[in-house]
Design brief:
It is built from 4 helices and 12 strands; from the N terminus they run ββββαβαββαβαββββ. The protein is α/β, with parallel strands linked by helices. It has an 8-stranded mixed beta sheet with strand order 7-6-5-8-1-9-12-11, sandwiched between helices. A two-stranded antiparallel ribbon has the order 2-10. Strands 3-4 form a two-stranded antiparallel ribbon. Strand 3 and strand 4 form a beta hairpin. The chain is globular. This is Dihydrofolate reductase family protein.
């Protein structure tokens, strides 16, 4: 099975969005460079960010996100982001009415079930877990192998925390990677068993 990786862009004070669920400048680094990150031509990053992010993105088979993120993004209009094959949505509610069964989205109850379904779908590819409440729950359950952060030079002061409302200490190894891009610092840690 592939690794389970918790990932997001994050402010230097540990937030993935402000109190109104707005990312503010957290994704500016994804559009401020001169190297196309994907075929859309919208995402353009520095060469250092491309060299680090593109190989990682190419390994992702499934993303796990919470229902809140699914609703905020309007389910990415039925197409998983960044060329990912499947999205597993953690929710206590049913699939939205009118949501096409052909879309590669899977709605499950609970983080353990979400990780199991994602690993089944991903095979030996990476299972990416969106940071925030669901990511924190997956970390607390002992199911995260790696933590990746794109640290952006902004201080929010309050908002949605990278690790959600986690209430216990978790030790990380490393960092294994520290890559400086343009207006972003890419950091990767292994989770200590």
């Amino acid at each position: 099975m592939g690794k389970v990786v918790m990932y997001s862009s994050v402010s230097v004070d540990g937030f993935i969005a402000d109190e109104n669920d707005q990312p503010g400048p957290l994704f500016d680094w994804l559009t401020g460079g001169d190297v196309a990150l994907d075929e859309s031509g919208v995402l353009k990053v520095s060469q250092a960010s491309y060299d680090y992010i593109r190989p990682y993105w190419d390994q992702i088979g499934v993303t796990i996100a919470g229902r809140h993120v699914f609703d905020l993004t309007d389910g990415w209009d039925g197409t998983p982001p960044s060329g990912i094959d499947h999205v597993v949505v953690v929710t206590h509610r049913r699939r939205p009415s009118g949501w096409g069964l052909e879309a590669p989205f899977h709605f499950v109850d609970g983080v353990e079930a979400a990780v199991a379904k994602a690993q089944e779908l991903a095979g030996d590819r990476i299972v990416e877990v969106a940071a925030g409440d669901v990511g924190g729950q997956v970390l607390a359950a002992g199911l995260v192998d790696e933590v990746r952060m794109d640290v952006v030079p902004v201080v929010f002061g309050a908002g949605k925390r990278y690790f959600g409302p986690i209430d216990a200490q978790h030790l990380l190894e490393g960092p294994d990677d520290v890559i400086q891009g343009d207006r972003v610092l890419h950091v990767r840690y292994r989770v200590r068993p």
